[in-house]
Amino acid sequence: MQFGIFTVGDVTTDPTTGHTPDDTERVRAMLTIAQHADQAGLDVFATGEHHNPPFVPSSPTTMLGYLAGSTKNIVLSTATTLITTNDPVRLAEEYAMLQVISDGRMDLMMGRGNTGPVYPWFGQDIRQGIPLAIENYALLRRLWEEEVVDWQGKFRTPLQGFTSTPRPLDGVPPFVWHGSIRSPEIAEQAAYYGDGFLHNGIFWPIEHAAQMIGFYRQRFEHYGHGQADQAIVGLGGQVFMHKSSQEAVKQFRPYFDEAPVYGHGPSLEEFMRDTPLTVGSPQQVIDRYGAMRDKIGHYQRQMFLMDHAGLPLKTVLEQIDILAEDVVPVLRREAEAARPAHVPANPPSHAERVAAARAAGTLPVAAVTATDHWTGRTAEDDVEAADAVTR
């Protein structure tokens, strides 16, 4: 089972000091957090995508491309790539480039986002959110899987003889998750393609997550990708820890009370009761998140939000250390002990996907023999022409 952290990249005033980081400080803090998570031995770092204040991660592939060169082991992902308002042609190009740069040490999560105004900013209609997600992803798949694409749809101009470059690493596209909190259509989409489904219900009870994940599992089996319990599932969560649970609550309460996303609403205690937020000792986190398997079955990825609500960088790094040293080893051991032998332990790695494609005989012809669809020439033609000139 994989464990990681995700960031939404919010710029929030620290209520205990009054300090508000500027955008540059916040971006650099996110890079430090990802690098520290890699050094601490966590499995995944994911960044959100936002195009409005008070959030800064507007260009996930730029950030992840930098991290590909400054981390060693951690999987680089997104915690959401906006499939509705991004051009699927650009997504195909940018994430294939990231895949090549990272040598396959990446995946991504598609989502519709949670900011209504982003749709008109990028020339789209929020009322078309679901149709956009379905059509754009279908095109993205074709751009990765087919070398030459002729396409016509509803939401963008047609394509004729188009080849997205660079081609996916080893001819195998990145692994894709679909993230949704309340849209069964997105769970259906993930199941149809045999992709992963991540329910980041940080504001919802586990019972709601169980309903959505249960539906996805049923449809995954319906489409013939395997048994329902073999579907690839992820969860989102939030924690704040101290060896003393009382001290954890004392330290986190001012951040919770003033945070834009949940301050001035339900109390911290109510929020901990009704959502995955767990503020307490490492053992309380182990007990809470270990019990989630009882609700949704074995799952492959658990992501935690830790750098939000104005928490200072030093505190976030300390939280990552506690998670990596005191919590993850226990949760990983317990998950593996409870995992049925036929159920995947982790999401498929790039190497595993390449091996599966090779076994199925679905790897594409090597790019070196490909025809230039503008001139009709091949690389071999150009070599022969060069030889003729030199003779």
From TrEMBL:
The keyword Oxidoreductase applies. GO terms for cellular component: cytosol. GO terms for molecular function: monooxygenase activity; oxidoreductase activity, acting on paired donors, with incorporation or reduction of molecular oxygen. Keywords: Monooxygenase, Oxidoreductase. Gene3D superfamilies: Luciferase-like domain. It comes from the Bacteria. SUPFAM superfamilies: Bacterial luciferase-like. Pfam families: Bac_luciferase. Residues 1-294 form the Luciferase-like domain. This is Monooxygenase.
